[in-house]
Amino acid sequence: MSGRGFSIGLRAALAIFTVTLCVTTTWAQAPWERVLYSFNYGANGWDPEGSLVLDARGNLYGTTNFGGLPNCACGTVFQLSHKVGGGWMETVLHSFNNADGAYPSAGLIFDAAGHLYGTTQNGGAYGLGTVFQLRQQGVRIWTEKVLHSFSGPDGINPNGPLIFDAAGNLYGTSRLGGVGPCTNGCGTVFELSPETDGGWTEKVLHSFSGTDGAFPLGSLISDAAGNLYGTTEGGGETTSSSSSGCANPGGPNGCGVVFELSAEAGREWTEKVLYTPNDADFAIPGASLILDTAGNLYGTTSNSGSFWGTVFELSPEAGGGWTETVLHSFNDYVNLYGGLIFDAAGNLYGTTLGTFNSLGTVFELSPQADGTWTETVLHSFDPNCHHDGVDPTSGLIMDTRGNLYGTTVRGGAYPGVEGDGYGTVYEIVR
After folding, report:
1. Degrees (nearest 5) of the Cα angle 161, 326, 409?
2. By three-state DSSP, how is residue 17 classified?
């Protein structure tokens, strides 16, 4: 009895010490990370894969890939709001039932009226994914409406967040579908236009063919002229070696492309491949791009020759064409699918998944006077303590104070079946 009691007491003491160590190392001097919410298996959802969005009151909104209704566990839309006295409270705004969508993996966007819009990878009328809208009807009461169900030729598995244009049209990508030669299609870029009767009309702006890209995964961005820019994680006319796994020039196993879609008034959209990467510089640009005020594009890759990934810049040339510059190469991090954001000073922020030394990082890249960029790791998720999160696959958002917010697909306070948790929402306080 005494031996057993000692063993239990020792384990309890070690558990308390481990939690204390996690908190101590996490809550160090700024910048420091704190977990705002830990997901658990069940109705509140788990596996928050997409990025977050903030409203004017400081509430956070996002999606979980799984959870919700017990007979489906097809994912949720959630809100995190401040509790009186401190802390955060999660509210499930909608649980998907497959008929109205299933497995949302992307972030959400607001319109001017405060309605939320997003995508689901599956479900809907044909089981191939949806675009949905959530309207607030009261305090924490939201009503979902399916704006479009994908059927195959118009897209399959929309994964990236949506964007609006000035006229209220929605634009997005589907990872599969379209009329390309890939199995189940090489993916599409689509537009949804609102109708006067409340409905929405979908139009495929481009179907990828393999040589011009395959499998778009990230969000689109738009410039002042209304041109659209994006990336694909496959395809392209590359002559790559196989060190990153992207051989098969011109086929779906290529290294991916950076592309532009443009349209003159009254004409169809035209795609132009701005850059086709290869193993010598970077490969697999799967994440969303961002633009600076000079028209330069910035993005990330998940593999590059002897490196695990890069942050790159594409600069337009005076006579046409684009020049690519690798700003930073990572040598112990992998899979930069989250995209980047800027702050007002021109610093870049992003996330990586983990490999040898951590379970992921939040990083900052700062431009130097000599044209180089310096990386600072703002937080490294602890491989010995999963409480602070595991695998931050989403991009970041920033509030007006400069604090950063993101999600991890695993980790948190609840161990889960394999002991690595069900995901978190975290903040980097700066």
Report:
1. 35
2. helix
When mean pLDDT is compared over 187-201, 332-346, 381-395, 411-425, the highest value belongs to 187-201
Pairing of strands 163-164, 141-149: unpaired
- Tell me which amino acid residue 77 is: V
Closest CA to 289 of 185, 158, 163: 163
Question: What is the per-residue pLDDT across 358-417, written as a single tens digit (0 to 9) for each?
Answer: 788 999 999 999 999 999 999 999 887 788 999 998 999 999 999 999 999 999 999 876
The full set of domains in the chain, from first to last, is: 33-429 (2.130.10.10)
CA pair distance 144, 42, nearest whole angstrom:
21
Phi and psi, residue 118, nearest 5°: -165, -175
CA dihedral 14, 20, 22, 26 (to 10 degrees): -170
What is the distance between the alpha carbons of residues 147 and 407, in angstroms, rounded to a whole number?
26
Residue that is written with structure tokens 């961002």 in the block: 290
Among residues 229, 253, 259, the alpha carbon closest in space to that of 240 is found at 253
CB 37 within 8 A of CB 46: no
